[in-house]
Amino acid sequence: MAPPPNPKLPPRPGGTPLGGMPPRRSWAVFLVILLINYWVFSQLLPGADEPVTVPYTTFREQVAQDNVSAIYSQGTSIEGRFKSPVTWPPANAAGAGSAAPAPGVGPIASRAPSRTSATFTTELPTFFDRGLEDFLIRHGVEISATPIRQGSGWATLLFGFGPALLIIAFYVWLWRRASAQGGMGGGGLFGIGRSKAKRYDIDKDTRVTFDDVAGIDEAEAELVEIVDFLKSPQKYTRLGGTAPKGVLLVGSPGTGKTLLAKAVAGEAGVPFFSMSAAEFVEMIVGVGAARVRDLFKQARESAPAIIFIDEVDAIGRARGQAVLGGASEQEHTLQQILTEMDGFTGREGIIVLAATNQPDVLDRALLRPGRFDRRVVVNLPDKAGRRAILDVHVRKVPLAADANLEELAQATPGFSGADLKNLVNEAALLAARRGEAAVQQKDFLDSLEKIVLGPERPLLLSAEDRERIAYHESGHAILGLLVPGADPVHRVSIVPRGQALGVTYQRPSADRYNYPEDYLRARIIGMLGGRAAEEVVYGTRTTGAENDIEQATQLARNMVTRWGMSDAVGMVQLAPRQNAFLGGPAGFGGDRPFSEQTASLIDAEVQRIINECHVQAKRLLHQHRKALDALVASLLRQETLSEHEILQATGLQPAPQLHGRPMVPNAASQA
After folding, report:
1. Which residues, by range, are in coiled-coil regions (predicted)?
2. What domains are defined for the chain?
3. What is the Cα–Cα distance from 67 to 481, expressed in whole angstroms?
């Protein structure tokens, strides 16, 4: 009894199931391929022992020269083998004509292309030479009764039909493989239309829950309702409501967007399909849309489920910009996502989560209600959040008694969850390399410097260079203590790290959310402290202030063009808004939205702010020259000083603090 047909494989026209052999018309194509293959190989690749036709006189000359090893004669035709291959016609055709040509091998043969072969054929003349046999025997020529060339039938078949048979076998294999994957229409050739999404099941992979997420409580609270719906959908549908179809997670890189999505799936206990948006788009048109269809099909079969698309901006950018005059593959993929998200009602138990750090570039149709209904912002953690994240990552790390996570959380403003995880890992590796039984506070601080500035560089500096670097860094540190509103100086070092020859590390005493003008000016004064110290002590300048000047110029330009802190320019936006999640310096773009006169005024105001801060930095260092010299002496002895050691060496007390948060992580001023 024949087995029942596979219900998953639709029947092909004519009753042949898709999982069978290719259709009958393909075999006619196969036969044509075989014939063409045989003809091409016979024309382009003649046999390796194909003989060359030579005149009878040439044959006798080669015999006389003992260059003929054997012959076979049938009628007037002679076939033989040379001891050394012979080229005929020779390159010098005129010279070859001195010999009498054999019948049918006259001037026409001399114009034929030259060939070199170890076998030959020739024709006996009508006046047969009766002494030919003795002549051959005298010169040691073997007279054979069997043909010299005996072709191999297997070799003929191999070269004549082998390549075509390989092509046919490869085609049949592709057909059967595509059939096993659900047909050419589902997976496509090589399965390129199939989704590459990774499925995570809580019974197979390590389960991630909200206990593994820390420091982003606001975003976590927004997703609790999603988890509740996946667990108990009837709680919400009984009154006619539906759960959100999509949730867009927006945040800086490393803030835990992917971790949040996995935690939602882990808490709800449903399958989790994860895929990067860049994996949808391929060079072949239509592949992205096919993968979208396959992804949503898999999710429907496993419902309730969660689909997570990372970096959705790769395919979700606003349409009409990618290809001038036509739709691009990215737009086809986006349109398929829009269609699929409209295709389910919300009662199927499928939630689409997507992550991006460029929400401004997304297509408006993707963000409308009914697709991505909610937008959850995942911010960088504050001090309490950083402490909670550190607690999560040190669960399996033995800590020494002096390890102070509270101090570490305060010293890492602007760090994301991924940065903090890397910090703990680097500290653990450093402690293991030092042979310690537990991770100490020094390991954390050294790892922090390595992450921010790079590893130590074993440079051999002269005494004069070390002293100059010490004055440069001491200038930053002294002004950090004297200027009201500046962030407290946490550490100063003249150990070369990365591209810096020295570093002054400042940290805010509390998280800041606003930036007073006095605080920004205090930062510029501190940035210019290194150059000011060199001018006060040596009266000359070096290239060590390059990074300081760059940071000070950018900060002063932002004060003028973005924050309206110049009376001459006024409260006018003269720089494009920065991406809140990617950062980067503000720029004017291709076309400046202001005149040349305004540009000159901006340059003048930026220069004024920097010059005023530079003058104030030099004045303060002149007034506290003794504290500057004392700090330099301590630095030359110890190379690295902590906050307490800095205060002890200078005898100064920190200036009063202003409240606000640094615009960017105030990690260090580098020499």
Report:
1. none
2. 52-150 (3.30.720.210), 198-378 (3.40.50.300), 383-453 (1.10.8.60), 463-670 (1.20.58.760)
3. 102
Q: How confident is the model at residue 646 (pLDDT cuts 50, 70, 90)?
A: very high
Specify whether the CB–CB gap between 209 and 266 falls below 8 A: yes
Question: Can you give the pTM of this predicted structure?
Answer: 0.66
pLDDT one-digit tens code per residue, 114-138: 777 778 888 888 776 667 878 888 8
Beta strands in 244-325 (DSSP E): 246-251, 272-276, 305-310
- Residue 456 is predicted with a pLDDT of 82
Of the candidates 486, 582, 499, 492, the one whose C-alpha atom is nearest the C-alpha of residue 527 is: 486
Residue 474 has pLDDT above 90, yes or no: yes
On whether the CB atoms of residues 84 and 184 are closer than 8 A, the answer is no
Q: In 3-state terms, the chain is what percent helix, strand and coil (to 5)? A: 45, 15, 40
- Which residues define the annotated binding site for ATP? 251-258
What positions carry a catalytic annotation?
A: 473
Cβ(278)–Cβ(196) below 8 Å: no
Pairing of strands 503-506, 489-493: antiparallel
Judge whether residue 102 has pLDDT over 50.
Answer: no
CB of 47 closer than 8 Å to CB of 114: no
pLDDT at residue 165 is higher than 90: no
